[in-house]
Amino acid sequence: MATEPLAPDNILLTPVQLGAITAPNRILMAPLTRNRADDDGTPNALQAEYYAQRAGAGLIITEGSQPAAVGKGYPNVPGVHTDAQQAGWARIADAVHGAGGRIVVQLMHGGRISHPDTLGGATPVAPSAIRPAGKIFTPRGEQEFVEPRELRTDELPGVVAEFADAARRAVAAGLDGIELHSANGYLLHQFLADGSNRRTDGYGGSAQNRARFVVEVAKACAEAIGADRVGIRISPGHQFNDVTESDLSAYPVLAERLRDLGLAYLHVLVEADEKILVQLRELWPDRLVLNTGFGQETDRDTAARLIDTGVADAVAVGRPFLGNPDLVRRWTEGAELNELRPELFYGGTAEGYTDYPALP
Ligand SMILES: Cc1cc2nc3c(=O)[nH]c(=O)nc-3n(C[C@H](O)[C@H](O)[C@H](O)COP(=O)(O)O)c2cc1C
């Protein structure tokens, strides 16, 4: 539905500083898995075209991308752990920068949200050997989840190092930084949540202990590339991928520790009226990015209001960006949005990916 154009001084169109990154507007592209990388996780020319089309975003946060082979969650998601993958990201960074944009890669380790068929026969790893309920998409179609292998305490520094190495590769490829995916039930979230973390070592139990692994990963990435190029996404209470949390006490602990590290931004996926958001906002008074979740697609006027009223400093927008490469222009002009084709979200070709038209 077409609306009024935005006033030139609308808050959405003002710049915001996210650590080392100056976003010229506050309409960020949310991370969106699209399963179009090569089979070995190498990002390709089609992806470069897709991201370059969306360079008008204040900042592009890419699809979740694994920092290590065992972190691959789904078929045809990109990785950030081989030379070929790094070269693929360099092509994407060049394309986006050439189109005037900014881009960080979302580092996503699937943890138990994966399957041996996706991992060349390997068993997925997790904080605890607890099988998630439900099914997952694999190269051989939908399959039941398997019981993951519990990571030993002495293995954890190696996993931390993999994240830091991927962060180094991202910056070496010319990307502007990374976002740690600590949301939606993937590995980092699995550590925070008591439903998936039953560890009895220093990484399970209390809120401090459950936050510890995520803090160690963030710290290692900050040391590798600078804290001002590291953002993080969390989704407190979001029971996606069968992650369950009997309380949200790990989040204020985590936010305090990450604030002390000086991370570029905190990205929260939560409905705007949740109590935890108020609590996090007190701990994180600036550089807070909000995504209001799957319930309702983010719309322009809600986004502007959330920033105007101080709930957040920028919004991350998912589905509208997927279907509208020139979303910032459309929101600015009050233009109609394209119709989404959800059946083409995950996997496939240019169709439903790079063929959504921009305004003439
Ligand atoms: C096709 C699709 C893929 C997604 N992939 C990711 C992902 O890789 N990482 C992530 O953190 N969130 C992912 N999400 C969640 C979005 O970032 C966002 O939170 C969600 O779409 C709700 O925001 P929206 O109403 O603006 O679309 C995905 C959502 C969709 C629809």
What does this structure look like?
It is built from 10 helices and 14 strands. It is an alpha/beta fold and about 350 residues long. The chain has one domain: Aldolase class I (TIM Barrel, Alpha-Beta Barrel). An 8-stranded parallel beta sheet has the order 3-14-13-12-11-10-5-4. Helix 3 packs parallel to helix 5 (about 205-225), helix 5 packs parallel to helix 6 (about 250-260) and helix 6 runs parallel beside helix 7. It starts with 15 loop residues before the first strand and ends in a 27-residue tail after the last helix. The model has no long low-confidence stretch (mean pLDDT about 95). The structure holds flavin mononucleotide. Flavin mononucleotide binds next to strand 4.
Summarize the structure.
The chain has 360 residues and is α/β, with parallel strands linked by helices. It has helices at 45-53, 83-98, 156-172, 187-192, 207-225, 250-261, 275-283, 300-308, 319-323, 327-333; strands at 16-18, 21-23, 27-29, 60-65, 103-107, 125-126, 135-138, 141-144, 149-150, 177-182, 230-234, 265-269, 288-291, 314-317. It has one domain (11-344): Aldolase class I (TIM Barrel).
